[in-house]
Amino acid sequence: MNLDLMLQSGQRLALSHIEQWRTYEGLLCGQPAPACDDDKLKVLLDRAREQGGAAVLVQPPPGDRLPPVCCVATFDSARPDSELRSSVGVAWFQDDFALPIDERVMALVGQVAWDGLAIWC
Which of 21, 6, 32, 31 is nearest to 92 (CA)? Predict the structure, then answer.
């Protein structure tokens, strides 16, 4: 399975790291409240920042509950004319554990304004 992605700008990205866990892991009983979901979004984005420095949250589809799987990944890129590399952390929810990564997510990652967001080193 190829986990490379071409941005609309023509820059190539590669998946270098992915973590996943159940969205409502640890919820003992009852229904999650909207405040709980807001906390989940914040934690997910914070984890993406820890991985990639800069981070993007792919908004979950509308609904009463978040999709069952939280995902945080780091995508890396290199400039062909130098040794500089960059990365961005991406956070999203999907219905199943990857792989594959949800096509909607991959399409949205392909639209990221990489040069304005990525940390180059």
Answer: 21
pLDDT tens per residue, range 1-30: 457 787 777 788 889 899 999 998 887 777
Question: Are 5 and 109 in contact, with CB atoms under 8 Å apart?
Answer: yes
pTM of the model: 0.85
> Where do the H-state alpha helices sit in 17-94?
34-52
- Report whether 57 contacts 66 (CB < 8 A): no
Residue written as tokens 């554990």?
A: 97
Specify which residues 6 forms β-bridges with. 12
CA distance 26 to 88: 28
AA letter at 15: L
